[in-house]
Prior knowledge:
By secondary structure, the protein is an alpha/beta fold. It has helices at about 25-40, 45-60, 80-100, 145-150, 155-175, 200-220, 225-230, 240-245, 275-285, 300-310, 330-345, 370-385, 430-450, and strands at about 65-70, 105-110, 125, 130-135, 235, 250, 255-260, 265, 290-295, 320, 350, 360, 365, 390-395. The protein has a single domain, classed as Aldolase class I (TIM Barrel, Alpha-Beta Barrel), CATH 3.20.20.70. The strands form four sheets. It has an eight-stranded parallel beta barrel, surrounded by four helices. Helix 3 (about 80-100) runs parallel beside helix 13 (about 430-450), helix 10 (about 300-310) crosses helix 11 (about 330-345) and helix 12 runs parallel beside helix 13 (about 430-450). The chain is globular, with a radius of gyration of 21 Å. The site of phosphoenolpyruvate has 10 residues, from loops.
Amino acid sequence: MSxxxxxxTPQSWQSKVxxxxxxxxxxxxxxxxxxxxxxxxxxxxxxxxxxxxxxxGEAALGQRFLLQGGxxxxxxxxxxxxxxxxxxKILLQMSLVLxxxxxxxxxxxxxxxxxxxxxxxxxxxTRDGVTLPSYRGDNINSxxxxxxxxxxxxxxxxxxxxxxxxxxxxxxxxxRGGFADLHHPExxxxxxxxxxxxxxxxxxMVAGIAESLRFMENVxxxxxxxxxxxxxxxxxxxxxxxxxxxxxxxxxxxxxxYNLSTHFPWIGMRTADPDGAHxxxxxxxxxxxxxKVGGLMQPDHLARLLDVLHADGEPGRLTLIHRFGAEKIxxxxxxxxxxxRQSGKTVLWFCDPMHGNTRTTSGGIKTRDFADILAELELAxxxxxxxxxxxxxxxxxxxxxxxxxxTGGARGLNETDLQRAYQSEVDPRLNYEQALEMALLIARxxxxxxxxxxxx
Length: 456
Ligand code: PEP
Ligand code: CO
């Protein structure tokens, strides 16, 4: 059954209040860009979307684990082979480590191929007495602090879509071509893994995976054609509603409307009003969807979201991405777990330990500390286990490159190090080593709670 009701269309969000949308100078240019966009071919297919929904449903029931990661905001200039392969490599490596920790299949979802639009706390930014519209992501305007760069340009959404297509094309070819063959994890090694204090632990895990494959093939006689290749799915925050609408279509032989620009769109924390335009748009699409849940989410608000977005309760349809911060999670999460339990519906519980742990240094740099991120995650595992619920995944802002944006980790990056290689225009990301170390530490944590956690 399609979740879209008779009064829903891909445009019906336009009758509601849509927060965080750019103000384009020309509505004619906007309309023409949306029209052109809507005739372009899809980036993903309904088969892939259904396969992911099925897997997320299994994760919601405690049978899989979800790893989602990528940049806070993708930049047009990041659409290059080195940046893309480094990102795939770190996601693959982390997923291998997590498989060893949870002993379950891991679903890999990138925050990529469409993660261009950003919510901003202020519509304007002031520097040295000059005020300009805020940077809202590369599909809207440009971060340079000049009045020309900050004017929203509707053609940028087409440029963003083309880059997303180039990126997915490259990822699909890499995965098909053997880059992700589990028999050859050495293809994924990055130069600086050799210098990491955790290299030995990682190499041991890789050896363990090779051993398990050999065991399956030689001893059990299973030729693991189905496990040789790993899948990647794409996700982004579906914030910019005109571009989401443009790629929302019916497909032959299936019910309902699909957002065919990504497998797994999510609603950001600032746009999760049950009466707002984003929830209106999301209620009508068939894709699996996520909603960010922060400290201000009231139980009745969550109950309404469950009614509107998760009407038939199909496992895999709705993922709740909680992001409270290490200090607040213990006071906030248990009552939301209760709301879901009372609804009788199954959701996938998923932790984003990044966005509740952002702080600004005395020098004015936005950062996050490795220890806070890990602390929130460890608490999330414990709180779900204590509530008889299942934490089915983790969400990171990360990069496969050697940036210095988050403090801490095995190398003990401090605030002075942040100046060395800080590249993000928006939120700070874990670098390659920090991301891998985080995966190793979560895998340890999962081993300690294995067997204790059961599904709600
Ligand atoms: C994000 O994921 O980059 C983001 C803005 O998160 P949130 O909506 O949780 O603040
Ligand atoms: Co972010």
